[in-house]
Amino acid sequence: MEHILLTWLRASPGRRFLLIIAGRLSGIHGWKREHMPIACQLIDDSTVIIRFDGSERLTISGATGVSLHPDGELSVQDAREVRFTWCSDEDPTKDCEEIFTKVGKVIAFSRTDDLYTTSMGFGITEDKLVLLR
């Protein structure tokens, strides 16, 4: 998995990606909806951390089926939890985040940002849990 991540990172300098988690366009905050990867790290063989320009961080816990596609997309087939974190536009000392926790075939979702806090559950309809395209 580490080889795939490093190959993707090296092939992506200056490229911006949309982040799609459980079929939802994710990580939209203010004017910035695309993210440029600058570093990645593999912890304990199944936790992936991707850092983006700015303060964004994507943590994928229990990642399986990580693959690199010929067009440069990176996908993760499945994971226990996906967390996207960014620095608040209103208060630079505050983190905002989206958390997707897989419970069987359902995703428990929560989001905390400058405007609101929300949570909900929804069914999985996509064959890839995380996609950076």
Task: Give an account of the 3D structure.
It is a single chain. This protein is mostly beta strands. Helices cover 7% and strands 50% of the residues. Strands 3-4-5-8-9-10-11 form a seven-stranded antiparallel β-sheet, with helices on one face. The longest helix has 9 residues, at 2-10. The mean pLDDT is 91.
Task: Please describe the structure with a list of short key phrases separated by commas or semicolons.
133 residues; mainly beta; 5-stranded antiparallel beta sheet
Explain the layout of strands and helices.
Elements: H1 2-10, E1 19-21, E2 24-26, E3 37-43, E4 47-52, E5 57-61, E6 64-68, E7 74-78, E8 81-87, E9 95-103, E10 106-112, E11 117-123, E12 130-132
Antiparallel strand pairs: 1-2, 1-12, 3-4, 4-5, 5-8, 6-7, 7-12, 8-9, 9-10, 10-11
Question: Main beta sheet, described?
Answer: 7 strands, antiparallel
Strand proportion: over 45%
Number of separate helices: 1
- Oligomeric organization of the protein chains: single chain
Strands of the largest sheet, in order across it? Answer: 3-4-5-8-9-10-11
Residues in helices, as a percent range = under 10%
Structural class: mainly beta
**Rg estimate, integer Å:** 14 Å
Compressed to H and E, one letter per element, the order equals HEEEEEEEEEEEE
Instruction: Return residue spans where pLDDT drops below 50 for at least 5 consecutive residues.
Output: none
**Beta strand count:** 12
Shape from CA axes?
globular
What gap, in angstroms, lies between the N and C termini? 18 Å
- Mean of all residue-level pLDDT scores: 91
